[in-house]
Amino acid sequence: MAKDKKSKNKQNDDQKQNSFAKRFMLWIAMPVTALIFFSTAIVIAGGMIPTGVAYFVDKSEGKYATRTVGYMNIAGAIYVCMDMWSSGDNTFERALTLLSDPLNWLIMFGTAGAGWLIYFMLPPVVFSYLHAYSLIRNKKIKEQQDALVKEWGEVVRETAPMVSADLMRFDPDLALEDGSPPPLSEEDQVKAVELKKALAKKEKIKEARAKKKQQG
Amino acid sequence: MALKIGKPKKDASSGGKGGPVEVKGRFEILPDQPIPSMDSPPAFAFKAVATRRKDKERGFYAYICDPAMPPRLGIISLLTRLDDRHLIKVQDWDVVDWPLEGRRCPVMICEKPEGSRCFETVETTRRPMKEEELLRIVIDPLTAAIREMHAVGVFHGAIRADNVFFTSGQENEVMLGECYTSPANVAQPVAYSTISNALSHPTGRSPGSRADDMYALGVTLLAFVMGKNPVSQFPDDTELLRAKLTYGTYASMALSHRVSPAVMEVLRGLLNDNEDDRWGVEDLAMWVNGRRMNPRQHSMGQKASRPFMINGKEYDTAREVALGFSQNWDQAVGLIQEGNLDTWLRRSLSDDDRIEAVNIAKGVAAGNAVTQADQERLVSRILMSLSPVWPVQVREIACAFDGFAQMVAINIHNRDFTQFFVKVIDMGLVPFWLEMQERPNQDQLRVLQRLEKAKLLLVNRQMGNGLERVVYELNDYMPCSSVMFEDDYVPNLDYLLPALDRLARRRKWKLNALIDRNIAAYIAVNHKRNMNRYLQAMDSGHQAVENAVAQVRILMHLQETISKRGYVDLAMACVNFLQPYIDQFYSNDEQAAIRERMDKAAKNGRIKEIIAIVDDKEALQRDHAEFSKAVHEYTVVVVKQARLYEEIKDRHKIAGTIGGKISSGIAATLGVLGVCIASIFKLFL
């Protein structure tokens, strides 16, 4: 118990330190760096506009679209900045010249577009892979079950717990022609709702007890 | 069930139709050669031949008995010991497949008399015998025969004119016919039955007594004296019965005929309606030897000054009133409760004994007898109080005091009779009958004692008890009357397992029960060892396994103690019957293995080996432990399955997350690579 508490406190401390580091980077380190490398900051700020848009558009939890677009976008922006860095002319005018060249915009926005392309292409591939893998796993599970039933009879199936009806719909063998699961029967729907309610009630009680304990 | 002779069943499954039927390797019965002249209903006679050379010359015939009317097998061994030429001698008995019936029937092999039947039927007439002839040809030999039988404690129970044969064609001596193919007195006509027996249902008559035999002998002698049926003047049995009740047997049957004073003396002695005053076989023997006696006259009871009216008919004596009540049961209740009977008894009959008896019968609650059961009890008691010879009667069914055992045995599958028996026991009518007797004898007290014991068994509904147990307790030689043996005949325990074996073969090893309530009671009564433990296990029968195992275990004990030979078909049926036990095993492989072991054990017909497999408790425990493991294993698989379906349910989300992670990884890699390559080109080249 004491060990758990200690590790929890340590985690809280780490989280606090991380948020502090983020805030420090966002409000102090970045503006200072931008002021020092002003011309590079202007090019990058202009070139990273697609990433900014992606950030606002991407509502997913891990912001993977922003990351994918961002990584490709920054690469394009750095490529453009390399002209400035290799010439040794790091002035504001040079930065404006670079930004006024449409080819540079094409490079920076093009790499961001490539990022979007990668992002849209991969999930369907992964989905197909997962589907194929789940079919194999399902077959294997059923083979194991059938082997046990063959040896012990249906009673082993009847004695062991069952997968709930609302989950059972997702058995690939029961899938409709379009691959979607069959609809849940009314009776099973009622059962599922009751089960959810019961679980929620249980959770509430658990929380209330935990609170009381803390207060105690 | 009456036997149908000469009409073979189409689907007769046993025996060759018409071919000789072997009996214990000693005789052969020829089903295609019936001998109607020797029939003794309900049994039918067929020619039989001896297979041994030394007996070839003797004439034999066989009685095929009606299984519904169990033959008196208990007296056979006693009769075979008698060596009297005035009795048709029974040689042997057995149970055989009778092709004409398509079932198994008890058969009796008898030696055929050389002479013919004296009276072909009850209605046959012949030349009346004179006193000297009667004495020499009939009385003398029959007295000797009856004396021999009574000496070994056997009562004939079927003495009548048409069951007497001439010993030879010269007709100078007679002999008694068979008395063992059906229960005693059941086949006797009303004329040959005492008043009490005549009033009783044929199956509820007394199981035979010395007095009954002497009475029947009296009527038989009368038939020989008259040369015809002595009651031919009566239009029907009811009239005959009324005459017997009114005037007494002798007066109603013999008075209208002229007989010599000596013969009259015999007839008076034998036809006395009072059992105590009736001549016995010793009295008759003394008379044969020349001693003349004056038989006591039996008082028929007082005649009333005014008749008692029942349903428009007049009745003059208490006995007649009892007859009237028994024939008008529903009116009797009103007449008793409204006091009409009391008034008639006091004012017209003036018989103090009857008045007192009726008062006892009515008891204190006569007026309150509202329910049907109370009213039946009241009328039944009144009948017995009006006439002590009256049998125990409830509505249409009447039974002699000592005839209950026989009645309930023959009619065990007839609800009317079993209900009658239960009612009689519940209403306490048997002790009341005895209370009404002037001088109850030891035999009667013994009967009461047995019926009182039966009362306790009757209310016990446990396996091996109840009505079935009562039947077997009361009847020593009762065959097993289970419905399972409706095509078979089980006269004693030795025949039980072979009968079950045949049944198992006929039903292709599929029996709903190996032992039903009836067989359980039969075993409980007839087996020397105490089977209560197993019968109780059968009773806890909501558990199919315990019940099945208990039944097979009982059969095992029977096989081990009575019949050592193997019964393959029965053993196979036992294996099938033990399916609930096999089903206890969860493992299909184990079930198959147990079944295989049992089948193997059954092939040599030893039930003990099957039970040995059942007794191996460890195998079952092992199976159950393995099953628990299998359930756990299955549960683990189900958890995996649930997890998989959860994943399938969220696969779009999961694919998005994984795809995002991979795409961001790829983008980062491509970006870094692109920057590196570009910087090499721009900065160094």
List the helices and strands and how they pair.
The complex is a heterodimer of chains A (216) and B (685).
Chain A lengths: L1 H35 L1 H10 L1 H9 L6 H24 L4 H9 L1 H51 L1 H6 L5 H4 L17 H30 L1
Helix pairs in contact in A: 1-2, 2-4, 2-5, 3-4, 4-6
Chain B lengths: L20 E3 L3 E8 L9 E7 L9 E5 L11 H6 L8 E9 L4 E9 L19 H21 L12 E3 L7 E3 L18 H5 L10 H17 L10 H11 L1 H5 L7 H10 L10 H8 L14 E8 L2 E5 H10 L1 H9 L2 H10 L2 H11 L9 H15 L5 E3 L2 E3 L4 H7 L4 H13 L1 H8 L5 H18 L6 H9 L21 H11 L10 H10 L5 H8 L4 H18 L6 H10 L1 H5 L4 H15 L4 H8 L2 H33 L1 H34 L1
Structural notes for this entry:
The complex is a heterodimer of chains A (216) and B (685). With 216 residues, chain A is mainly alpha-helical. Chain A is built from 9 helices and no strands. In chain A, helix 2 crosses helix 4 and helix 3 runs antiparallel to helix 4. The longest helix of chain A has 51 residues. Chain A is elongated, with a radius of gyration of 28 Å. In chain A, 20% of the residues are buried. The mean pLDDT of chain A is 85. In chain B, helix 2 packs antiparallel against helix 4, helix 2 runs antiparallel to helix 8 and helix 25 packs antiparallel against helix 26. In chain B, 50% of the residues lie in helices and 10% in strands. Chain B contains 28 helices and 12 strands. Chain B is α+β, with helices and mostly antiparallel strands and 685 residues long. Chain B folds into 4 domains: 91 residues, 2-Layer Sandwich (Phosphorylase Kinase, domain 1), CATH 3.30.200.20; 158 residues, Transferase(Phosphotransferase) domain 1 (Transferase(Phosphotransferase), domain 1), CATH 1.10.510.10; 172 residues, no CATH class; 124 residues, no CATH class. A 6-stranded antiparallel β-sheet of chain B has the order 1-2-3-4-6-5. Chain B has a two-stranded antiparallel sheet with strand order 7-8. The N terminus of chain B is likely disordered. The interface between A and B is large, with 59 and 46 residues.
